[in-house]
């Protein structure tokens, strides 16, 4: 599996975990990165993706809400939303 694909997979898993646990703390993310099986480069790429999403989460949610027809953010599955 390529570096970027693995990184995107890890980022999705991390975002899902943060969403389900309602704990977006650095400690929670650190535990996730320590437990995942991936190269350091894949974890680094995933970490950058997660940081970008967390920094712009309100904007992303607004944009998704604007283009999702007949679906409110609250109705989307967590996997789809993440």
Short description:
73% of the residues lie in helices and 0% in strands. The chain has 82 residues and is mainly alpha-helical. Helix 1 packs across helix 3.
| Series of secondary-structure elements, N-terminal to C-terminal | HHHHH
Quaternary = single chain
Ranges where pLDDT stays below 50 over 5 or more residues in a row are none
- The biggest beta sheet, please? none
First-residue to last-residue Cα separation: 21 Å
Q: Average pLDDT value?
A: 86
Per the principal axes of the C-alpha atoms, what is the gross shape?
globular
- Overall SS class: mainly alpha
Tally the beta strands.
Answer: 0
Which percent range fits the helix content? over 70%
Proportion of residues in β-strands: under 5%
Taking all Cα atoms into account, the compactness measure Rg is 13 Å
The helix tally amounts to: 5
């Amino acid at each position: 599996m390529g570096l970027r694909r693995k990184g995107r997979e890890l980022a999705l898993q991390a975002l899902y975990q943060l969403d389900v646990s309602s704990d977006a703390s650095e400690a929670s993310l650190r535990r996730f990165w320590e437990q995942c099986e991936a190269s350091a480069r894949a974890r680094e790429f995933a970490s950058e993706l997660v940081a970008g999403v967390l920094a712009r989460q309100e904007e992303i949610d607004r944009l998704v809400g604007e283009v999702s027809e007949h679906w409110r953010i609250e109705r989307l599955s967590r996997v789809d939303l993440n």
